[in-house]
Amino acid sequence: MSATGHDYAITRTLDAPVEKVWAAWTDTESYGRWASAEEVVLDVRPGGAWSSVMVIPGGARIPLTGSYTEVVPNERLVMGMNVPGRDEPVLMALDLTPDGDRTKITLSQTFDRAEDRDQSEQGSNMLLDGLTRFLAAA
């Protein structure tokens, strides 16, 4: 546990160059396909808004909104997600490191409660599983 709360970091190495991984996260059509999202809007710039409707196993639809706080193409993307009942968005950092024709990707977040961290970590693993499948099929 960090001094500010409960955090996690998931790191994987993907079989795709960093530019392809970046495009998968920042291209509306690509993101919708691998993230099981519909109605995707991505304005990838600092202060730009994003929104989507996540379709989770079982068919439930969860609308999500937020904005980008940091954008460094092919390196770092920090996204804030609006959460009902919270004054400040929950931030998620995506860091990319080239490894030849592969990419090391790290997703990280910090939460006030362990339960929130655990739920988000599970969701992030599902996202990375979908991204891995998408990149393998591309």
Automatic annotation (TrEMBL):
Annotated ranges, domain Activator of Hsp90 ATPase homologue 1/2-like C-terminal: 15-135
Q: Which InterPro entries match?
A: ASHA1/2-like_C, START-like_dom_sf
Q: Which Pfam families match?
A: AHSA1
Give the matching Gene3D superfamilies.
3.30.530.20
Give the family this protein belongs to, as stated in its UniProt record. Answer: Belongs to the AHA1 family.
Q: What is this protein called?
A: SRPBCC domain-containing protein
High-level lineage: Bacteria, Bacillati, Actinomycetota, Actinomycetes, Micromonosporales
